[in-house]
Design a protein that fits this description.
The complex is a heterodimer of chains A (about 325) and B (about 250). By secondary structure, chain A is an all-alpha fold. Chain A has helices spanning about 1-10, 15-25, 35-45, 50-60, 65-90, 100-105, 110-125, 130-155, 165-190, 195-220, 225, 230-235, 240-245, 255-260, 265-280, 280-300, 310-320; strands spanning about 95, 100. Chain B has 11 helices and no strands. Classes of the chains: A mainly alpha (about 325), B mainly alpha (about 250). Chains A and B meet through α3, α5, α7 and α8 of A and α4, α5 and α6 of B.
Chain lengths: ~325, ~250
């Protein structure tokens, strides 16, 4: 159902998205059999392709040339893909989107090399863009993402943290790359500095809303929908927004403390999920996500009138309301 | 310029890179970035030999060492169960150093060099992965693969700045030097790269594999020493610096 909705949202850009998909395949072509296999596996797993789509949409505010703009759209998706491959090593994850991860297929080391290979291919593409500003934005983004992940590891299993810590973390972990996708699409096409600024902000707010929804879904979606056990984030020690709100509930708090202390049984997991779903933590987290979504939509209002604005609004709404 | 000056330049370059890659948490959990001194030596060789050397050369040299350090850091991630905090941060340390290399070149800016180094990184990653693939190859082919891993980034640097005459020397020198450093780790059971395991599988024992590699290092070092004596593009200072490095390797191999 959700995939259908997304397909409909992208229907106006089908030919351009097809170009990006083909280009992704070409980009990941390797002399190494394992890297080829891993890349194909990653591409087949699909994904929402949100980042390249935002690059394409943002570029419509300038001199739009798909042959040029693909050199930004492709690397943004590749960087996202590479960071997932490395994240699976960090999280010791066997499954992603219901499929075996690269590290499960081979081992951690091959996953490291696969990620490095994909990062390198991303930058090779990006160097077709000669604007220094674009490279400064992207390089800064790559560093910020790492810093965000380092903070996430520092904050792991720490219950004494506040909302600010959480927002600071997800900004770097997720929002920055979506924000940069919007910003880079506008920069690469030569859009005005105002458009660049509003697109950057739009992407940031959408990214924040998107990550909060992702963190909510980790508790509310089924294992099947997630392709991994629900509640995985918390079981790995990541205290996300719904968990932070749930900690305020005296009955749920001891359950969360137990998860943080060590492995829990399947029935304890089910009990925890049930309690969090029933509490107002999900509602509160949804409210914050909505606030970010509204801010994103306000940024669209500040953009020049363009047919693309509707797509931006529709995709933002989809991301902020998605069910899994 | 003399040998002491050369070491001083290597130390300065290393300190500049340490400063750029400094991150409090990474330092606490993963230690100092694993920068290769021998790579810095060969990066600086054209400068020692009297080639024109500007700020751009220095920053580009930093970025080469930064990306190689990023890739080397990922060699320290365990093949299975990298679940400790230190191991998780090892993954991120490599990514962070990689981001810093790009950031450094984006600020310079030298986008063309980003392209050349990215190309090298892709090739190095392919060659590292190939050690895991069930493919029959000779010792010579394995060493050639390793040579690419340890020298391709510097090769791109030398090609980019017109120092092509140094490439062959650097490739042979880097291979010898890295082989020797890695051999010591194999002897101490601290090697984390796959190459020596693949080599060992070809021989009846680990000791035999070590003997073969030691012999390989000695033979190659002797040959390279002879070649260096005939390299007219090298000044006496540069020649002495390279020869003393190779001599030290030869001693440690026997």
């Amino acid at each position: 159902m959700e995939k259908m909705k997304l397909k409909m949202l992208y229907s106006g850009m089908k030919s351009e998205i097809d170009i990006i998909e083909k280009e992704l395949e070409t980009a990941l072509n390797s002399s190494s059999h394992f890297l080829n296999e891993a890349s194909l596996h990653l591409l087949k797993a699909g994904g929402k392709r949100i980042r390249p789509v935002f690059v394409l949409l943002a570029a419509k505010f300038g001199q739009y040339d798909i042959q040029q703009i693909k050199n930004v759209a492709v690397p943004l998706e590749l960087i996202h893909m590479a960071s997932l491959v490395h994240d699976d090593v960090i999280d010791n994850a066997e499954l992603r989107r219901g499929r075996e991860t690269v590290k499960a297929q081979y081992n951690n080391r091959v996953a490291m090399y696969a990620g490095d290979f994909i990062f390198a291919k991303a930058l090779e593409y990006m160097t077709q863009i000669k604007k220094q500003q674009a490279h400064q934005v992207l390089s800064n983004t790559m560093v910020e993402i790492c810093v965000g992940e380092i903070i996430q590891i520092e904050d792991k299993q720490v219950l004494k943290q506040n909302l600010r810590d959480y927002f600071r973390r997800i900004k770097r972990k997720t929002a920055v790359l979506i924000s940069s996708s919007c910003e880079l699409g506008a920069i690469a096409s030569g859009a005005s500095p105002e458009v660049v600024r509003h697109m950057r902000r739009f992407g940031y707010y959408v990214g924040m809303s998107f990550q909060i929804i992702d963190d909510i879904l980790d508790f509310t979606a089924t294992d099947k929908q997630l392709g991994k056990p629900a509640g995985s984030d918390l079981m790995q020690g990541n205290v996300t927004l719904p968990a932070l709100y749930a900690l305020e509930d005296d009955q749920i708090r001891p359950m969360i403390e137990k998860v943080i202390e060590g492995p829990i049984t399947e029935s304890e997991r089910q009990q925890l999920l049930k309690a969090i779903r029933k509490s107002d933590a999900i509602q509160k987290a949804n409210h914050i996500s909505d606030l970010y979504l509204q801010k994103a939509l306000k940024e669209v209002d500040k953009l020049p009138n363009h047919p693309v604005n509707k797509s931006l609004v529709d995709i933002a709404n989809f991301m902020g309301k998605r069910k899994f | 310029m003399n040998a002491a000056n050369m070491e001083q330049l290597v130390t300065e370059l290393k300190d500049e890179i340490y400063n750029k890659l400094h991150h409090r948490t990474l330092l606490a959990y993963t230690g100092q970035p694993p920068i290769w001194d021998d790579q810095l030596f060969y990066l600086l060789l054209p400068r020692v030999n009297g080639e024109q050397w500007t700020k751009q050369h220095q920053v580009a040299a930093q970025s080469v060492a930064m990306i190689q350090t990023a890739l080397t850091t990922h060699d320290l991630v365990k093949e299975q169960q990298a679940t400790s905090k230190a191991q998780q941060l090892m993954v991120l340390a490599g990514d962070y150093y990689s981001g810093m290399y790009y950031d450094t070149l984006a600020k310079l800016p030298d986008i063309q060099f980003v392209q050349k180094l990215s190309n090298a990184v892709a090739e190095i990653s392919e060659q590292k992965t190939a050690f895991y693939e069930p493919e029959e190859c000779t010792l010579e082919e394995l060493l050639l693969r390793y040579e690419t891993i340890v020298s391709r980034a510097v090769e791109q640097f030398m090609g980019h700045f017109g120092f092509t005459v140094y490439i062959e020397l650097m490739k042979k020198g880097m291979l010898l030097s890295r082989l020797s450093a890695e051999l010591k780790k194999v002897i101490n059971d601290t090697s984390t790269i796959r190459l020596f395991r693949v080599i060992s599988e070809r021989f009846s024992s680990k000791d035999e594999a070590i003997r073969v590699i030691q012999q390989e290092i000695t033979t190659r070092a002797t040959k390279l020493t002879e070649e260096i004596h005939t390299m007219e593009f090298l000044t006496n200072v540069a020649k002495t610096a390279v020869l003393s490095r190779i001599e030290a390797l030869n001693h440690s191999a026997t």
